[in-house]
Design a protein that fits this description.
Lyase 2-enoyl-coa Hydratase, Chain  A, domain 2; six-stranded mixed beta sheet; alpha/beta
Length: about 260
């Protein structure tokens, strides 16, 4: 498959490495990237993809939407239709029962920041910054940006981040809990890929089920959460991979999971 504005690689261990590839434009999201996102969806859903890593070419992760997109003559229906392409892809990533990483190698704003928020784990380069600049175009954070920001940080920290006077540094993002690690740029991708490699050796059913449960726990009560856990655990208990895990423990060897 040919790509417009990304580079797609499926590594040997089942890790899909996706590089936003418009370095001369700080990897700003254009119509080509929107089309790429639509085409990525069925690929990332395949069983041979075990984990997903996003990063950016050049000095940016993603600087948001390309300014030319906002210079078009839009009506409300057409703009919403275009926006839903990106929003639907971000929702897909958040719901994907596989580990999804954002290796934030440089500045992340607008739709780029929302992409990072749709990932399970965010790791940032020490020199990188991130924040909100939509207000400079009289726009708001979209594609689930306000929802995910509050979900990730809580209301108080979310407002503090959004209302900041400048882009946040990697240390500030680490302190507020927006990213899990800050790593030197030269080591960033290796760090994230090594992390992903350890996760693809885990039981994929259990990892995916736990990701789905964790995503649901911010909007449920305790009793409903426990009921969901019981149903999920029963499903795991009856799986072939559970039996393989028990056998491997008894036989003092590493388990070989098949996702069954």
């Amino acid at each position: 498959m040919s790509w417009n504005s990304i580079k797609y690689e499926l590594l040997e261990n089942g890790i899909a490495l996706i590089t936003l590839n418009r370095p001369d434009f700080l990897n700003a999201l254009d119509d080509g990237m929107r089309e790429d996102f639509k085409n990525l969806t069925p690929l990332l859903a395949k069983e041979n993809v075990k984990a997903v890593v996003f990063t950016g070419a050049g000095k940016a992760f993603c600087a948001g939407g390309d300014i030319s997109h906002f210079e078009k003559k839009w009506n409300a229906d057409n703009f919403t239709k275009q926006s839903r392409v990106v929003s639907d892809f971000y929702d897909f990533l958040e719901d994907l029962p596989k580990p999804v990483f954002a290796a934030m190698n440089g500045v992340a704003t607008g739709a780029g920041l929302q992409l990072a928020m749709a990932c399970d784990v965010r790791v940032i380069a020490t020199e990188a910054k991130a924040g909100f600049r939509e207000h400079q175009l009289n726009l708001i954070p979209s594609h689930g940006g306000t929802y995910r920001l509050v979900k990730l940080l809580g209301l108080s920290k979310a407002k503090h981040f959004y209302l900041s006077q400048r882009l946040a540094s990697s240390n500030e993002l680490l302190r507020m809990g927006f990213v899990s690690h800050a790593v030197e740029n030269k080591s960033l991708l290796e760090f994230v890929l090594n992390w992903a490699k350890t996760l693809v050796t885990r039981a994929p059913m259990a990892t995916g089920e736990a990701i789905k449960l964790l995503n649901s726990m911010t909007c449920t009560d305790r009793d409903s959460a426990l009921e969901r856990e019981y149903k999920s655990q029963t499903k795991m208990l009856l799986s072939k991979d559970h039996k393989e895990g028990v056998r491997a423990f008894r036989e003092k060897r590493k388990p070989f999971f098949k996702g069954e």
